[in-house]
Amino acid sequence: MGARDIRQAVHDDLPAMIGSLGQGAYFADRLARQDTGHGLLLVAWESAAAVGDVYVWLAPAEEPELRTHLPGVALLTHLEVVPWRRNRGIGTELLWAAEERLLGDGHEQVALGVGLDNLDAQRLYERRGYAEWPHGEVATTKVVYHPDGRRELRPEVCRILVRKLG
């Protein structure tokens, strides 16, 4: 495949993103949120194929613990890489691109939640310098977007990891 490119998604990218990553309802929702300034959808591309994405949540956090202890801090959500391209640095590049964008926009730190059973992701974040916050685990709601457009809400307990930028 050609060189990898990470860039902010635009509406014209939607068909290619759905073709590679599925989740049409999810990406339509995130592009709509991006349009209103509530976030930023970054997508990793190889040639014309989307191979990964991360959403930078810029709106106030949904969880009260995050609003209390990390007011105004951007959250990284939904970091994913297609299965056949994992373990090739794409997740790390997506993190780096999101962090650089946030730093350039004046943010001093970034946070994310990771499921307790997602050990591979936890190792990736710790390698990038993320550290667990001192306020314990947080009950969150995972939104699962089904191919038919249905959204399913599932409870999920997460570790909250924070990284200073710069």
Automatic annotation (TrEMBL):
Please give the SUPFAM superfamilies that the UniProt record associates with this protein: Acyl-CoA N-acyltransferases (Nat)
Q: Name one GO molecular function term.
A: acyltransferase activity, transferring groups other than amino-acyl groups
The identity of this protein, by name, is GNAT family N-acetyltransferase
Q: Which Pfam families match?
A: Acetyltransf_1
Organism taxonomic ancestry: Bacteria, Bacillati, Actinomycetota, Actinomycetes, Streptosporangiales
Question: Which keywords label this protein?
Answer: Acyltransferase, Transferase
Q: Which domain of life is it from?
A: Bacteria
Mind telling me which residue stretches traverse the membrane in this protein? none
Keyword Metal-binding assigned to the entry: answer is no
